[in-house]
Amino acid sequence: MAKKTIASVDVQGKAVLIRVDFNVPLDENGKITDDRRIRMALPTITSVLERGGKVILMSHLGRPKDAPDAKFTLKPAADRLAELIPNKVTFATDTVGDDAKAKVAALQSGEVVVLENLRFQPGEKKGDAEFAKQLAAFADVYVNDAFGTCHRTDASMVAVPEAMAGKPKVCGFLVEKEIKYLTDTISNPARPFVAILGGAKVSDKIMVIKNLLGICDKVLIGGAMAYTFSLAQGGKVGKSLVEPDKVDLAKELLAEGGDKLVLPIDTHAGDAFSADCNKKIVAAGQIDDDYEGLDIGPETAKLYCDIVKGAKTVVWNGPMGVCEMPPFDEGTKAVAQAIAESDAVSIIGGGDSAAAIQKLGFADKVTHVSTGGGASLAMLEGKKFAAVDLLDE
């Protein structure tokens, strides 16, 4: 997927509309608790500013109901950006209204305006062409640097670049990097290629498992979805989180995967969903009726770590257990450490896995931490993204 990037566009004196992902977590006082998504967008933003371009930033934040909601204003993100760069940053109190129009019109080279939350407009989620036209009219160049929403067809992702016919439509450095790792590495991996998939539901990851079974040497399963596979093999799962309606599907995947699909051999179980419950390690598929599986067991952790040690490419998406609750975070920690210590090209697929890698301090010891949970899963499924396909080759 050789897409043109912002580096190849002359931006001197031009208005550059950048779709960023400033969907940052906020506390109850509206303070940003993690600014990583803002910092990840800086290389693209500063590249345009340093070359004399004018930057207009658009993003969504949270899930407002198609109308302004003070709780979801992008003002904190604009303020944080102003602290991170020396350039002038102004905030427009609307998205395509009078304030946005006035501030975009007054924009000088080397300055930034941040538009108010795209989702305050009903046209954003609907992919509305009229709303998109108003945004497109602001700029000479369109940049997609919001990987976290690349799998969506919101107006800012698809209808805006479509409305900018004849103008450059390119990807930012973050999207370029995500495509490189998630598409290029996977289409031509160094082998052995190992995927580790966790999380609660088989249903969320069916297509990913199917796709990866076709290209990986091993697919390791952890998290609660392992218990649905266990059920499919006739095992006892106690009070574990399972999807009984997905048992036939799990059977199909077991038949399809053969020895490529690796399941836990033991389980760390508890008699309640709490850190201070009664705990025991049991063989996989042997969970007592009043217990539930909450993590992979130590033998499984050792097996998975040994497989990772021999890998040349590793993709990890989803925790191995209840990673926010010790001691049921041990499996996730062991796998994260094995990946960090391996020589493999390692790609961490957003969401909980990305958070775990960050929290454990291994983020700089892996090759790539994806910024998009849903988008990275969709890419691992081999899905096409309209938001990427319509960018210039």
* Main beta-sheet annotation: 6 strands, parallel
Q: What is the CATH T-level topology of the largest domain?
A: Rossmann fold
Give the termini distance in whole angstroms: 8 Å
**Counted beta strands:** 17
Give the overall form: elongated
CATH homolog superfamily of the largest domain: Phosphoglycerate kinase, N-terminal domain
Secondary-structure arrangement, i.e. CATH architecture of the largest domain: 3-Layer(aba) Sandwich
Overall mean pLDDT stands at 93
Q: Helix coverage percent of residues? A: 25-40%
Query: Strand content of the residues, in percent?
Result: 15-25%
Q: Structural class given helices, strands, pairing?
A: alpha/beta
Spatially, the strands of the biggest sheet line up as 3-4-2-1-5-6
What's the Cα radius of gyration?
A: 23 Å
Number of discrete domains: 2
Output the keywords.
single chain; alpha/beta; Rossmann fold; 6-stranded parallel beta sheet; 15 helices
Map the helices and strands.
Elements: E1 15-19, H1 36-50, E2 54-58, H2 75-84, E3 89-91, H3 98-105, E4 112-114, H4 122-126, H5 129-136, E5 141-144, H6 159-163, E6 169-171, H7 173-187, E7 193-197, H8 202-215, E8 218-221, H9 225-232, E9 236-237, H10 247-257, E10 261-262, E11 266-270, E12 279-283, E13 286-287, E14 292-296, H11 298-309, E15 313-317, H12 330-341, E16 345-348, H13 351-359, E17 368-369, H14 373-380, H15 386-389
Parallel strand pairs: 1-2, 1-5, 2-4, 3-4, 5-6, 7-8, 7-15, 8-10, 9-13, 15-16, 16-17
Antiparallel strand pairs: 11-12, 11-14
Helix pairs in contact: 8-10, 9-10, 11-12
